[in-house]
Specification:
By secondary structure, the protein is an alpha+beta fold. The chain has a single domain, classed as hypothetical protein PF0899 fold, CATH 3.30.2320.80. The strands form 2 sheets. It has a 3-stranded mixed beta sheet, with helices on one face. The longest helix has 19 residues.
Length: 115
């Protein structure tokens, strides 16, 4: 389950930022997670519960933005929504595409607190 390592990295980022700004806790954290990032949300939720205990994220509100997949056809340049990495272009049928969005996995923002 790589979701555990993802959560541990998020905890590390939050701990570093809190330390850098001399904050005691994080009141909210905002995450961008692409639908094609390979993250199983149920597994992430499970890993989150156990991994944030006794950290600056223990009582933080978690806001997750799921970013839908989008691709640009390398043949005809059409940009279109995708569900899978090799969904063909609806205009010309080409499967060679540039992934424009949907693979994001990032901490978008943290709100720090002294509580």
């Amino acid at each position: 389950m790589h979701e555990l390592s993802i959560v541990m990295n998020i905890v590390d980022i939050a701990e570093e930022e809190a330390k850098r700004h001399r904050a005691r806790a994080v009141s909210s954290i905002e995450l961008d997670i692409g639908e094609m990032a390979g993250v199983e949300m149920d597994a992430l939720d499970f890993a989150w519960e156990s991994s944030v205990r006794n950290t600056v994220l223990e009582h933080a509100e978690r806001i997750v933005h799921r970013i839908p997949g989008r691709a640009r056809c390398l043949n005809c340049s059409l940009e279109y929504p995708i569900q899978e990495a090799f969904d063909p272009c609806p205009a010309c049928g080409e499967v060679l595409v540039e992934h424009v969005q949907g693979k994001e996995l990032k901490v978008k923002s943290l709100v720090l607190s002294d509580d």
